[in-house]
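Re: [help] complex structure
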Amino acid sequence: EVQLLESGGDLVQPGGSLRLSCAASGFTFSNYAMSWVRLAPGKGLERVSSIASGGSTYYADSVKGRFTISRDNSKNILDLQMNSLRAEDTAVYYCAKVGPPPVGYYDSWGQGTLVTVSS
Amino acid sequence: DIQVTQSPSALSASVGDRVTITCRTSQGIRNNLAWYQQKPGKAPKLLIYDAATLQSGVPSRFSGSGSGAEFTLSIISLQPEDVATYYCQKYNSAPWSFGQGTKVEI
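Output below.
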C-alpha cells in the first residue's frame, strides 16, 4: 500500500523559511515523479512543484526562485524548501505521487501539512 | 498555457439524482484528463484518469466521458457520502493545471 506522510508545516512570519518533507513507502520511489500540490483557503488545487524520476524539476510561476524541490531516492524522501514566504503561500501542502510514466495524474496523496504565513 | 474551465462552481442536488460536472480546455488535450474528489479536511482522491478510466476501488456510479476539449464527470445516483469538491486536471503538457473545482452539496 502506498503511503505518503508529510511533515514540517508550521506558522512562519512573512519572509521566513520552512522545509517540508514527505516520507514515501509502498512503492519503488525512484521510479516515479513526485509533486507538491497546495490548497489555499477559499481557493482550488494548485500544483506547486514537481520532480521527475530523473531529477528534472517544475515550479509554478508563483513560487519560482523561492521554492526548491528535491528528492533522496536512497531514503524515499521528497522535500520542499520554501524561502521568502508570503501570506499567499498559506495553504495545506500535499505530497502526491504521479502515475506510471508518461502520465501526469496523481494516483496517491498524503494527508497534507499546514503552512501558515502570518505575522 | 491551455486554460481549464470547470462548471458549475457549485451545485445542490438530492440523493439519487444524476449529477454532471463539465470541464472545458482552451485547446484539445486528447484524453489526458483526470477527475478528483476532495472531501472537507481530507486529501484529494483520484476518481478517473484518461478521461474515462475508473480508478480501482471507485464506485461504479462515477463515470467520465469526453475527449479533445470537453469532458464530463457524472454521478448517476448521488449518495450522501459524495458531498465533496470535485476537480478536473489536464496532463497532456505542462503545466498540469486543475479546474477551479465544483462543490457538490445535498
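The mean pLDDT of chain A is 96.
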